[in-house]
Amino acid sequence: MSVDWTGARDLAHRAGVTARGAAEAVPIHDADGLVLADPLRAGTDLPAFATSNVDGWAVRGPGPWRVVGRVLAGTVAPPLPVDGAGVAVEIATGAMVPAGTEAILRTEESHRDPDGRVTGDPRPAREWRVPGDEATLGDQLAPAGANVTPALIGLAAAAGHDTLSARPRPRVAVRVFGDELLTEGPARDGRIRDALGPALPSWLRRLGADPTTAPPPIRDTLDAHVAAVRDALGEADLVCTTGGTMHGPVDHLHPALRRLGATYLVDTVAVRPGYPMLLASVSGPDGRARFVAGLPGNPQSAIIALLTLVAPLLAGLRGGPPPPLGEVTLGEPIPGRGGDTHLSLVRVDGPVAWPLRHVGSAMLRGLSSAVGFAVIAGGATGRAGDTVPLLPLPLTPGEAPR
């Protein structure tokens, strides 16, 4: 029995959350694209000590100021001497501000008199950062579930962290079924080029997974399917297969899953294109659930299945929230597909989405120039000017759907 499209996405995410593994301390250099398992907290005040915003002179007392030293970034600044005359210390941007500093006079706004004393008018605004300006020790800098980005890595390093608490990238194996598929050159002799084996690892990488390169297509026999899936489950948290999701004479995925003792979480989704997709779980040797996502053999349908079932599952396994949908305004009508959800490839010009050509289930040309799929709910029709959800394509490595 088919599941509605929204329900299928929810089921897949919940399955990932339930099966996700323990968090690890990941070196910050390797954490880009992961998801925080615990909140990131400041390990020190930011800044940890008063630091100059400019190159200039740290001064105390009335001017003109007698120069008594220099402080550079990376050194400890001694306090300014206390006496009746004005004193100054040359200071570099980012250097520690000496205790007793009353103002910092910018270099470009200062002068030296014939006796070497510094003159000028410091600006009234403070020219240095004080401890805790940005954060104080223990402040939450990012919540659990936040995506680790280069900016967050820099923040973590500044806050004193060498590692981040995160779950590793889910390991994903790709297995392509079909005797009709070629792995090089153009279509010939009734056989077609495999377009999914080369592409799926890149899609999966963009969804935050650690995919393996797909081996040559698996032969269309039940024994070959069982062996291929069983071997892949030994090395991966998730196996993505392509083709064989229907019940034709050479569609062996369902019988293979029965042999492997799999439990169906989703068996077909009420969405067009992409209807014959599935998600099943298989208990691994350690008792933790592994998953098999059966993607249709037609390329566009396979990508719809990838975004419908695999993207939410991976988000759950990584410890993140369900992938959110965007929103677009239709520039042209998009018909409904009866009671099924219709996912229509679109390009976006400003806030307006326009349906594309070359969008048949077996076609890739429209997909190559799309930003995502306009979502037309079951029983509805999209009219020009309507605001509808957008299922975006993950366009950047490590970027989950927006």
Automatic annotation (TrEMBL):
Record-given protein name: Molybdopterin molybdenumtransferase
Keyword Transcription regulation: no
Catalysis performed (reactions): adenylyl-molybdopterin + molybdate = Mo-molybdopterin + AMP + H(+)
InterPro entries per record: MoaB/Mog-like_dom_sf (IPR036425), MoaB/Mog_dom (IPR001453), MoeA-like (IPR038987), MoeA_C_domain_IV (IPR005111), MoeA_C_domain_IV_sf (IPR036688), MoeA_linker/N (IPR005110), MoeA_linker/N_sf (IPR036135)
Stretches assigned to the MoaB/Mog domain: 173-316
EC number annotated for this UniProt entry: 2.10.1.1
Protein function: Catalyzes the insertion of molybdate into adenylated molybdopterin with the concomitant release of AMP.
Organism classification: Bacteria, Bacillati, Actinomycetota, Actinomycetes, Micromonosporales
Pfam families the record matches: MoCF_biosynth (PF00994), MoeA_C (PF03454), MoeA_N (PF03453)
Source taxon at top rank: Bacteria
Cofactor(s) in the UniProt record: Mg(2+)
Pathway(s) per entry: Cofactor biosynthesis; molybdopterin biosynthesis
Family named by the database record: Belongs to the MoeA family.
Keywords noted in UniProt: Magnesium, Metal-binding, Molybdenum, Molybdenum cofactor biosynthesis, Transferase
CDD domains attached to this UniProt entry: MoeA (cd00887)
Residue span of region Disordered: 106-129
